[in-house]
Specification:
Blueprint (H helix, E strand, L loop, with lengths): L2 E2 L8 E2 L17 H14 L12 H8 L3 H13 L3 E2 L7 E2 L5 E4 L6 H7 L4 E11 L3 H7 L4 E10 L2 E11 L8 H4 L4 H9 L5 E10 L2 H6 L7 E10 L5 E10 L3 E4 L30 H21 L7
Parallel strand pairs: 5-12
Antiparallel strand pairs: 1-2, 3-4, 6-7, 7-8, 8-11, 9-10, 10-11
Pfam family, one: GntR
GO molecular function: DNA binding; DNA-binding transcription factor activity
Keywords: DNA-binding, Transcription, Transcription regulation
Length: 314
């Protein structure tokens, strides 16, 4: 799409695209403004309207969709609240640059709680909550094969940002339901209903390509880069409570790590050939041992002399 210069100078900004007419479905249960917002949202995500592009005027959108101007304004307000459209006083709305969210990877708190503390509303839809046999490494960590597999999609506004798969020991989470976890934090639910929550654990991060299923869930092309955060969590008593894998959109989420001197403790296990050799036994009597003992005796005598005032060595 060709860029057109502003009147009066300044940086170039993409022109509003010439979008074809698309009347809304007045028989559908979805409100008219939501239908208009859905179409515009799709066009923004598909880069039919790239970042920085000026949106069509309210009059143009009104004619395109065959709705009242108030409906168009509601739709635009929704896109502004989602961060997809930016509005400035006295200027036409423009497509916003993609928003990047940040996550502290060394915290035991989950994505929901971290986003909430930063003022973001993270919606959660439960895809699956079913009994399932875990992979071997998960079974080994949790100490059981009687587990639940919980899969959730996390979104900011209407935009998916992460897909989460969590394994839980069935015996430790009785009564857990999809309704309890919709638009909620798993950790908060476990703490308020069962008095347990993960407080420690290990994490590992990898960059992986999106397979077909993840690509569809996260509204990405297959093979798009994802940030995978994976690990286990133990409760207040050190008992394994969960194993999770969270795939984050790399174009929407950045990982942050807090550092301090007291955290700079690295435990290394050297290879066997690098370990110090066992000391060679020394017999109780040998020429080397006798010389060492004689040297110690002479040093001790010299120290005694110095301590008592010694002689003048000038």
């Amino acid at each position: 799409m060709d860029a057109a210069p502003f009147r009066g100078g300044g940086a170039a900004r993409p022109q509003a695209p010439k979008l074809t007419g698309m009347p809304v479905d007045r028989t559908a249960p979805q409100p008219l403004h939501a239908q208009v917002a859905a179409v515009l949202r799709s066009e923004i995500r598909d880069h039919e309207m790239p970042p920085g592009a000026t949106l069509p005027s309210e009059a143009t959108l009104r004619d395109r969709f065959g709705v009242a101007r108030s409906v168009v304004r509601q739709a635009l307000a929704a896109l502004v609240s989602e961060g997809l459209v930016r509005r400035e006083q006295g200027r036409a709305p423009v497509v916003a640059s993609p928003q990047e969210h940040r996550r502290l990877v060394q915290r035991a708190t989950g994505l929901f709680e971290q986003f909430s503390r930063s003022g973001l509303t993270l919606s959660t839809s439960v895809v699956h909550l079913v009994p399932a046999d875990p992979p071997p490494q998960v079974a080994e960590y949790l100490g059981t094969t009687d587990t639940l597999r919980l899969e959730r999609l996390r979104s900011v506004g209407a935009e998916p940002v992460a897909y989460v798969r969590t394994w839980l020991p069935s015996a430790r989470v009785p009564g857990l339901t999809e309704e309890m976890l919709t638009d909620a934090s798993l950790h908060h639910v476990l703490e308020t209903t069962l008095g347990i929550r993960p407080v420690s654990g290990r994490r590992q991060v990898r960059a992986v390509p999106a397979d077909a299923r993840l690509a569809e869930a996260l509204a990405l092309p297959e093979g798009a880069p994802l940030l995978l955060l994976e690990g286990g969590g133990a409760d207040q008593l050190g008992r394994p409570l969960e194993w999770f894998a969270t795939w984050h959109r790399a174009d929407r989420v950045a990982f942050e790590v807090e550092l301090s001197e007291q955290d700079e403790r690295l435990r290394l296990t050297p290879a066997p050939d690098l370990l110090p050799a066992a000391p060679t036994p020394v017999p109780s009597s040998s020429p080397a041992l006798d010389r060492a003992r004689d040297l110690v005796d002479r040093l001790r005598a010299e120290l005694d002399t110095l301590a008592s005032g010694g002689t003048d060595r000038r």
